[in-house]
Amino acid sequence: AAAESEQGAAQPTNGDMDVHYSSKTSEWYTPPDILELATRVLGTIGLDPCSNSHDAPNVPAARHFTREDDGLAQSWQTNTLFMNPPYGSEIGAWVEKLAGEYEARQVRAAIALLPARTDTAWFRRLRDYPHCFVAGRLKFVSPDSGEVNPAPFPSMLVYLGPAPERFAQVFAAIGDIFVRWHVED
User: Under a CB-based contact definition with an 8 Å cutoff, are residues 45 and 38 in contact?
Assistant: First the structure.
């Protein structure tokens, strides 16, 4: 089987993995080990703007915006934020909101869990921030069955904040850390 990526190119898939390449569902829970590392960097998480629930959230944040709250329409003013946005066609809007809120100093520090799609405009929007490219495939938790499924794509975490060294120290345990090299003219 093949599904289309957000750029429209056919992607090879097999059966149950089709959903990762499509917008059939964009909700996959963040693995607990990633949340533990994020908490080590951020301390407490002030906001999860892409939460699954107010009552039983996957991300241990002080505040949660669910799909019904429309996190893109809300102010994200907070000290710390963790974001695992929907991976469908709307991912670019979430990345733009994250970068905009951070650059406007509405968010002091943030970590975003994203697919490592280096060929996208939204990736280029985050290129000046430290990245951890996860070695191997993350295992996401299915919201319906609780099953753990490896992603059919590589993942990365991006850090926006005042402590890039701390991010690098903590996340180096799961992947390589990259910072964009700036060449002077």
Answer: yes
